[in-house]
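Section 3.1 - Work completed
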Amino acid sequence: MATSEELAFQNAKAYLLKNSTVSNTNIYDHLAQLINKLLDERPEDAVDVVEDVSRDLKGRAFKQEAENIQEVEARSEAVALAEAQSKLFETKVEEETEADEDMQPVIPDLAETAFYFEQTSVGLSREELFRIFLAMKQLTQDQPVETVRFWGKIFGTRANYIVAEVEFKDGEGDEEDQLENDEGDGDIDVPQRESSEDQEDDMESPDEPPKSQYKPPPVIPREENRMGTNKKTYFVTNEPGTPWVRLPPVTPPQIAIAQKIRKFLTGRLDAPIVSNPPFPGTETNYLRAQIQRISAATQVSPMNYYQFEEDEEEEEEEARDSFIVNTEFEGMPYKELADPSLNYWVHHVQYILPQGRCVWYNPVQKAEEEFEDEEEEEEREEPDEPEPEKGPALLTPLSEDAQVDGQPSWSTTLSTSFATPYTVVGIHSNRWPGAHAFAIDRKFENVYVGWGLKYQPGCFQPALPGAGEQEHVKTEFITETDDPTPEEEAALRAAQEGAEEQEQEEEDEEEDDD
């Protein structure tokens, strides 16, 4: 019979061997492993590290010895972005000759530009602008660009777009556009013309519906690179340090539809544009169209900073599409630049016509050329010659801009009215909120920071769906008749069978006579 001491020992050991409901381990085994580990390693000051050794043993008990899935360290988006941006700060020491320095692309000093925009309460943070400057420098190393400029920043619902405006070197940058056009055109199977006999058979057959005489309206081609709406090329990125993406050229239908819809950008270039009327493209194309619309309406400069070349004739003033910098320009007084009349600011980007181009294209002339190539000599109605579209010429003063909801299209601000030699004049668009410009001495710059939406008084009303199709017009080939009754169908079927039997008898009689 066990003594009381033995019974107490058994109860104590049973208590120590009781497994935990959480970890399914017991204190007895854990203490045995702890003592064995201390005796094997014999650390100094064991009493001070016993808690750490105990915690380590518990951690190993819950870790599999052999893991089939490789551990992936979870990183936040901020850490991943910081790692990508850290590459922008890597300096490369290269030997450059004087000739190489002359061929380097021109990168504007964003720090100076940001300082002047700060005087007019406009701009981004200095840290972000410095990262954008490094990203633009990286762009010049990856692309054969001649000049690059920070166009602005467009906000999105998921991510933002940082836009860089570039000009490629002569003979560079057009290959990619050509490849995009080749892939987009594709091979189209053109149906062969039917012979005259087939056409006669079709006309004689009353069961065949008449062929449609509808001809789609002529397609308005896009303007060539370095001209009109595609004069400049644009690259975008969501954050400095992430890859730059080149936007495709813009087409007239894209601009025409973009003028009729209002969409918030998402920050994803492949996002679809769901709208009425349907937009021909994805967010990439819509973003490019909005950039061109904003540039055409808000890219301004002080008067006489740009000038036309002297050899151009005055009667071709409306067709001018290029200008040069006036080397004799010495700046304008701030009072003239801040004049509410806006007579001393001009547009230096071509106006976009309702057709979606900067230079009007005659669609009737193209249709006539296609008709002359055809062999048909039938008479046709001559289409009406459309009236050419016209718009404001280059370097038109801002005073000719239409008002916005009864207010001037632009507002002006001064950095200070005391130190007049250092006063910076800011000008802000009321038609495209977010478009700004400044001028002081011979310096000026434009920037856009906004949502990419045009100001619209009142609520936006999307276009209503089109009217339903009308009934088909009756012709000699298509007439509406009542459906036959079952009796009439039976009588017709019997008559057809009788006619077939009679034809068969006649054929048999002819064979017997032969």
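Second construct:
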Amino acid sequence: MWPPTLILDLLLLVSWSCFACCEQWSYRPQNCTLECIRQGDPRCEYCRISADDVQIFPSIPSSSPFGSCVPWPCHSFLGQETPEVCQHYVHAPRNIQIEFKASEEPTYEAITVSWNPSQYGIEFLRGFQVTLQALGGSQISCQLFLLGTNLSLAPAHAQRVYRSDPFTHLSLDSEYAVTVMALPVPERWDQFYQRKKFFTRTCPEKNGLEECKKDWYPRYVEVHQENLDVYVTFNLAPESFEVRQYFSSCFGGGKRNNTSVKPDFILNKTHHTYQLQNIQAGTNYSCEISADVVDAVRKTFVVVVKHTFEERPTSNLPEGSSLMVLLCVGILLAATALLTFIVVYKKRLKKEMTKLKPEIIEQYCDKNLDEGHCVLLDRTIRPPRLLICYSSYDGPAHVRVVLQLAAFLQKHMGTQVHLDLWEALSIMEEGNMGWHCRRLTECDFVLVICSQGLLQKQNKQSEDEELMENTALVMVSMIGEEMCRAKAMGRDLCKYMVATFEYSQESDIPTALGLASRYTLTKDLPLLFSHLHGVALQKPGVYLQVENISESGYCKLPAGAALQLAIQQATAQFSEEPNEEERVGIPIIS
């Protein structure tokens, strides 16, 4: 029979084990009312609060960049009966995790957010606010969760996992930022929230290739001929797509030839070369290649089968014409040799240019040129940081253009963009002027978007409007002073740039910014790319054209198409306005 002390020790060990397991439990939101939380009902331990349950504090302006997602003051929903619960500091949550959820809509993503509370100040914790924002957009979604007033957590409870409700209708293959704030929000805005950026899944990752065939097709196809044999090289689908067979079809000379292609993935997992069958010399073929699945998107390319000298038929020409034939053949060979030398020489020049940076991680190419015509960027060094300043006096159409430009620069031009619309929490923490001054010092480049509203003056209607206009004037003056100081000390002025869109003019550029480099967008996107990355677009015998950021090519990308549409809408709006004096808005340089 066991002694009583041993039995007691075992019981304590089991109880402590159960306690530890309980603390690892995941807490999901409950349906309960704000009144239930205030009364301290034990059933209201971790509750979701809707917008109808909480009234936004009256001092918060409706035009706040947070919209309805402001960090509500604690006393607006818990401090009426017990004000002391809102007077303590709570540290930021930790271990933010993103979990993708099954969604009935294949074109959208759904997620839930989980986190652990911090052990510092956990005994005063009253709840959490979760904010989700799409980077490159202004849409913000919020969820508010409160703990019961009779609940007081201990540092040992810091291993608890709290979860949010699902965030739905998120765009596929897009970047988002999720922010989890601990409540109550302190008077001193420091370390009360934690932020994490993430990408939603692509369509093939979420639904599989069978449901997303338009998301992938062979983009690289190269054709080369050896005597009468024609070979085609193309890029293979990623391994995760599990495509094991491809289909090729060529039509020419009144006949269609179909070829089944089975790559050997042991030899090469990224590219494969196959031979076209049953083709005739001197015939032009229109060919297609795709993954061998139903309704797959096909890549179209053209094959021109040339004659070779070995297969030319012997001609029954008179002896007097033999010399003429030999002369023509000699001229043709000489011209071919000259062209071959020129092509090889140019390719060597392009290869030498691509060796400027040895560690290649991103390419900007023109598909109409040879494969060697590429800009190679090295991300072992951080991307250039760019601060974008603009005026909102021209209205929401102009702000939308600036927003889409920032998204395009960050996603397709290898640049880390800092924009006030994306960093509203930091602005509320540091203040508008403090945030701009810090970014002006930290960033490698500053781009001022000049428009008619940047120079407009208006009658003050409120103290907020006067403060915003003063911020605009101070920022323009500060940038102008920085340029003058750099010029006087002989330093480079490449940090400072100004840009105008097609609905603006050079006269909209402030005199204080006259020393800055000037660009007209979107015509000068390649020049802006060259400025940001120090890439030469022109060298002796070489002229580099970057398709995806050229004036005609940028709109082929989704972000570029959104930028083009925003510019067209802004141009249409400004052309319909009878005069500039009828505009309304607040000039803010951001």
